Amino acid sequence: MALAPMFLSCSTAQVDSITFEPLILKAGNLAKVRGNVNAFTNKGGTVGVFETKEGFIIIDSQFSDSIQPVLEAISTKGKPVLYLCNTHHHGDHTSGNIAFKDLTNKIVAHQRVPELQRKAAEKSNKLNEQLYANILFEKEYKINLGNEKITGYHFGNGHTFGDVVYHFENDNVVHVGDLMFINMIPVYRTSDGADSFNWIKVLGKIQEKFDDDTLFIFGHANKPELTVGNKSNLKEMSEFLAASNDFMMKAIRESKSNEQLLTENAFIPGFENRTTKERFPDYLKGLRETLAGKYE
Ligand SMILES: [Zn+2]
Q1: Which pLDDT score, from 0 to 100, does residue 146 have?
Q2: How far is ligand 1, taken at its centre, from the CA of residue 219, in Å?
Q3: Is residue 189 classed exposed, middle or buried when 0-12, 13-18 and 19+ CB atoms within 10 A define those classes?
Q4: Ligand 1 centre and the CA of 37: distance in Å?
Q5: DSSP 3-state of 186
Q6: Quick one: which H or E segment has residue 258?
Q7: Which of 61, 137, 186, 277 stands 20 to 30 A from 162 (CA)?
Q8: How far away, in angstroms, is 51 Cα from ligand 1 center?
Q9: Rounded distance from Cα 5 to ligand 1 centre (Å)
Q10: pLDDT at position 17 over 90
Q11: Is the overall model pTM greater than 0.85, yes or no?
């Protein structure tokens, strides 16, 4: 008789800690982050792949060709895609949504994402290649799957108007999308909602919300193995954005044009690790727009 409760508590503990067999992919790079959360890099933004007993939750979709290895690997497990979640509207995170059209009818994103995605698709003449999120939210959205909980949070605009981070609560992993670029100049367009001041605030809120054990999946890094990190990386990104603001404010005070800045600098002083050369002119252009709007 004494064995029954022991058996029960033991089996409950096992259910909580099930880790599934790793997915085998034909292309791209899939790495386990923790528990049942994986990060996939191929072309475009890092994809989060989360497996539960009932099915998969995918964060972002890259492009319809580069996401294929993930879809093929998933199909061998015979489980459905429960949700596709987008971190923001940019094409290297949402162009692959269309590849999920027969796999799930639950696509989650911030409420601004479909409108921004549509506008960008119109510009690039790709309107008929889009699949838009249909579960939209403003501040917070919870996905409850029995033991597993995934929460999406919008902490304001940093990289775009529709930035969302997704927290896999059991494994304590957060996909932060393009709020994080490692060793790169970030993509920065004020018309999309990029705002270097607000971006610092958003990174501050993320650091407050999550703990020192939390692992973060980043939208972009210069090497696949750097797409996962911790709070120290978020701090470095905040410091980079603050240094960028100081750099541009000084240039505005000294009446220096971006052309002058580009001949004198190949990176933001102190951040020579971030040297995406072809992106630097647009970054300076965007920073100037943000600062001019705020301080002129
Ligand atoms: Zn982006």
Answers
A1: 79
A2: 8
A3: middle
A4: 21
A5: coil
A6: helix 258-264
A7: 277
A8: 25
A9: 51
A10: no
A11: yes
